[in-house]
Specification:
- There is one protein chain.
- This protein is an alpha/beta fold.
- 47% of the residues lie in helices and 20% in strands.
- It has helices at residues 15-36, 78-83, 87-107, 121-125, 129-139, 153-157, 160-172, 189-194, 204-208, 214-229, 242-250, 267-271, 274-286; strands spanning 40-49, 54-66, 70-72, 114-119, 147-152, 176-182, 199-202, 233-236, 255-256, 265-266.
- An eight-stranded mixed β-barrel has the order 1-2-4-5-6-7-8-9.
- α3 runs parallel beside α5 (129-139).
- Bound molecules: ligand C2E and magnesium ion (3 copies).
- It is found in: Membrane.
């Protein structure tokens, strides 16, 4: 059989590429079905006020209960969903679920806590974004400041002017805005100053070495100082050890998130068994979480 070659010498019929394309298409098909059949779930990971030593909110992290493969982590399907555009409807499902969870807490008479959702760059570029969020908020009435939008630094850099405009619209709806994975995207301080942002989430890569690498400690200290001067709160993600926590507390970091406080869990564990949350905080305290 004739093997057709592209200009760059890559065969159009390379069996590996063929397989990858077929798998991508199959995944896309399965994702469509997942939306229709409600196979997605949000898991919630607590965020802790480091001064008050209290859970003040959650990050909502998507999971896919695949009928054959079981629970799937976002990295196994979000990139494909972004490529084929399905991230846009999936993203609205996420925002709606988060609003329902906020409402649910309110109806149960639990104290209000914010929920942060991740917004991918594709969603950020969707011209319907603001209308859709407004529509969700009109159907599910919540205090909009309790809904937090996390956007990565990199999605802001592509087109700063457009990003600033979208962020202002989001801000006008009353939502809280946070920059995710901060420190990995080379955004300048000048850009940051223009943005209507409430929080910076320092990327986990800077937290990992916090107890051992003086450079990481310096970076975190500088980020916190700068953020505070700009009137922003700082969230540290990926806190796993007491040592990391101690450094963050000494750097005046405002909010913490990580396995040390709790893993992402289904909503039922948070709202019904709220005792559990107390436990995770209590156990942190018992292990010597003291604020100087
Ligand atoms: P992210 O927004 O930076 O979320 C934090 C990730 O770090 C989560 O992974 C979380 O489980 C993990 N993590 C939290 N604490 C620790 C820790 O102490 N140690 C370690 N090793 N990991 C920790 P997850 O749930 O697998 O999500 C991965 C990424 O997928 C997220 O990174 C986010 O970019 C994306 N993602 C998750 N849910 C959604 C969604 O609903 N929409 C979109 N567009 N992206 C999402
Ligand atoms: Mg995030
Ligand atoms: Mg993050
Ligand atoms: Mg991250």
């Amino acid at each position: 059989a004739a093997k057709q070659q592209g200009k760059d010498g890559i065969s159009f019929f390379d069996p590996h590429i063929q397989t990858a394309v077929t798998q991508g298409l199959q995944l896309e098909q399965e994702l469509r079905q997942a939306l229709e059949e409600d196979q997605f779930a949000l898991f919630y990971q607590p965020q802790v006020d480091l001064k008050q030593q209290q859970i003040i909110g959650y990050e909502a992290l998507i999971r896919w209960q695949h009928p054959e493969k079981g629970l799937q982590a976002p990295l196994s399907f979000i990139p494909v969903a972004e490529e084929c555009g399905l991230i846009v409807p999936i993203g609205y499902w996420v925002i709606e679920q988060a609003c329902r969870a906020i409402k649910h807490r309110e109806e149960q008479g639990l104290e209000s806590r914010f929920i942060a959702v991740n917004l991918s760059p594709e969603q950020f570029k969707d011209p319907q974004l603001i209308n859709r969020i407004r529509d969700i908020l009109s159907r599910i009435e919540i205090n909009p400041t309790l809904l937090e939008i996390e956007i990565t630094e990199s999605s802001l850099i592509e087109d700063v002017e457009q990003a600033v405009e979208v962020l202002y619209h989001i801000r006008r709806l009353g939502l809280t805005i946070s920059i995710d994975d901060f420190g990995t995207g080379y955004s300048s301080l000048a850009q940051l100053k223009q943005l209507p942002v409430d929080r910076l989430k320092i990327d986990r890569s800077f937290i990992i070495g916090l107890a051992s690498d003086p450079d990481d400690q310096m970076i975190v200290e500088a980020v916190v100082a700068m953020a505070h001067k700009l009137g922003l709160k700082v969230v540290a993600e990926g806190i796993e050890t007491e040592q990391q926590l101690a450094v963050l507390v000494s750097c005046q970091c405002d909010i913490g998130q990580g396995f040390l406080f709790g893993r992402p869990e289904p909503e039922s564990l948070h709202s019904v068994e709220s005792l559990r949350e107390q436990h995770s905080i209590e156990s942190v305290k018992e292990q010597g979480f003291v604020v100087q």
